[in-house]
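Q&A FORM
Asked by: J.P.
Topic: structure of DNA gyrase inhibitor YacG

PROVIDED:
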Amino acid sequence: MSQNPDKTPADTPRRMRPCPICSKLSTTEDYPFCSPRCAKVDLHRWLSEGYSIPVVETDDIDDPDTDTFTG
Ligand SMILES: [Zn+2]
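REPLIED BY: S.T.
REPLY: Here is the structure written out as tokens.
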């Protein structure tokens, strides 16, 4: 029997990458993001990119029918 002192990889801490969304320090829970929010943002970005959904917010809707309001 020979017990060789093997180097435990757990001894070396993992390199924490910065969050790709806000460049903050990522956490082990939401790796590689810093928070579930950033993970959601990335997911949304990925989805929008895949579906190519134009993100256009049009609050002002021109309704020609409202022209008949004059009476
Ligand atoms: Zn973040």
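FOLLOW-UP: The pocket of zinc ion is lined by residues 19, 21-22, 24, 33-35, 38 (CB under 6 Å).
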